[in-house]
Amino acid sequence: MLRYTIRRLIESIPTMLGITIITFILVHLVPGNTAAVMLGPHYTPSQAAALNHQLGLDKPLPVQYLLWLWQLLHGNLGISYTQGLPVLQIIGINLPRTLAIVGISTVIFTILSIMQGIYQAHHQNSVQDNVITVLAYFFFSMPIFWLGVLLIIWFAIDIPLFPAGGIADPGQTMNFTVWFSHIILPVITLVIAQVAYMGRFMRGSVVESLMQDYIRTARAKGLSERVVLYKHAFRNSLLPLITLFGFSVPTLFAGTLYIEMIFNYPGLGYMFWQAALRRDFPIIFGATVIIGVLTILGNLLADLLYAVVDPRIRYN
Amino acid sequence: MSAQPTFEPLNAQLAAAETGMSREWRAFWRSPLAIAGVAILGFLILFSWVGPMIWRLNPISTDLSYIISPPFAGHPLGTTGVGQDQLSQLMVGGQISLLIGFFSAVTGMVIGVVYGLISAQFGGWLDTVLMRFVDMTLAIPGIYLLLVLDSILQPNPVTIIFIIAVTSWQPIARIVRGEVLSLKTRDFVEAARAEGAGQARIMFRHYLPNVMGPIIVFTTFQVGLGILTIAGLSFLGLGLPQTTPNWGTSLSNSMSYMYQNAWWLIYPPGILIVLAELSVNFLGDAFNSAFDPRMRGRG
Hints:
The complex is a heterodimer.
Chain A: H1 2-29, H2 34-39, H3 45-55, H4 61-73, H5 87-122, H6 127-140, H7 144-158, H8 176-210, H9 213-220, H10 225-262, H11 268-278, H12 281-309
Chain B: H1 8-30, H2 32-54, H3 86-122, H4 124-139, H5 142-152, H6 157-166, H7 170-183, H8 187-194, H9 199-235, H10 247-254, H11 263-291
Helix pairs in contact in B: 1-11, 2-3, 2-11, 3-4, 3-6, 3-7, 3-9, 3-11, 4-7, 7-9, 9-10, 9-11, 10-11
């Protein structure tokens, strides 16, 4: 298992390098003048030249790439053009906020999808099953940003239960309770969207498991339906969920980008969006690399979880 | 092209494949999901193309005496923040949203199919390199790539189709490659090769018809993703200019009137997008159960 993990980590290095090259090329295709962004509307050509020289933007692109990569390997992602702070420090502040939303949501939507799948498979083709399927279709078809807007209108404006956005209200001192009240609506938004997506697969997966021979054997042995469902069918239905989870790491980050934008929540997605609007290359770079790493780790984690859940899979 | 081959067993196989296909279509049309999908999509197409012929108000022109007006006879869905007629905005906007969804999915499909076919057909190091490239692009979430591409290219319907296509072709390339790899060893391909069929002929005449099922399913879902993406880009302030009405822009404009209870601005564009998504998801699932032999007969 450890050897497999290490091999997979080494194998992902070329992919990581590729991500840095793609990002680098894309970012340098962007028209837009960094000097204009940093110096404001009034600057002289010599000021711009000095700044470009200082930032290394006057060197050939491959040289710029190698210099940047060298710094990256030393844990230096550069200085944000617009905020004047090290990118790593900015990401260090923003990433945990995003991970908190993604993490809390993941725990909740995993449990809810599993419950939905088992419930629907158990009551297959009943009225409840069909109602849940229709609801899931509906929420699955709903743009996540519209869902977020509606939740704000309903539960922050019409019925002011939760804050409409941000991370703390003006004048409020930051503490855990304040922060937590601000992430409730974003988390609910992400959970609804993900359950609508995963619950359907979970239902299909449990239905499939229930048709297997070993389920018939278990029932023939006289085991209670409860034991059959939760001990026999459930464990084998987890496999597709894990695959789906591995694939959905980028989807989760994409979802949080919209959510953070709607809720004005200063996380990684919000930071990236702002950086893209302002051509803040070091942040765009840093965020893309970090998300690339997280995605690859997510896929690896999914592969390793396979082995834990499915005793037939052994990595040796 | 070489002389027409006369190879009886192969022709028999092809004939069998053809009847198989029509059986799949019959299964498709029996599914309630397919009927619902076609009905909703038909409604949206009528709404967007026939609607403007009946309701003839110019969607762009502004009526300054009615700004953010609730619905009344003159403006059945009210007016926008600059006094445009919301109903005609949504009708004309539907054309752009649906066309972008359709063409971005088809463009992405073509890229993915050709890429997957080449990767599987030539194999070896080329296959490895091509698939590693897919891994890399998949590790960058599409929306992040979209933001970068969108700031490089001037957003108009054609560039938006291109942007959505280049951020969504990868899964279909993987699907096609996987299917073709499993077809490669089959007898009918051997037979075609023995007859002297070239690489291109094998790719497009023998592999392609056999992977059509998954391609149709995936492309159908992709139409929905395209409609969502263009709406999402509008939301991020990176979509089409205000002069090109589309559902995404209508929806994102309505955000500014969240606190004014302007329900006629907030709900209709969202509902139209949900209907479009529902119809393609229904159709995609109906295709899926029709084309997947394991699912056939199970509804």
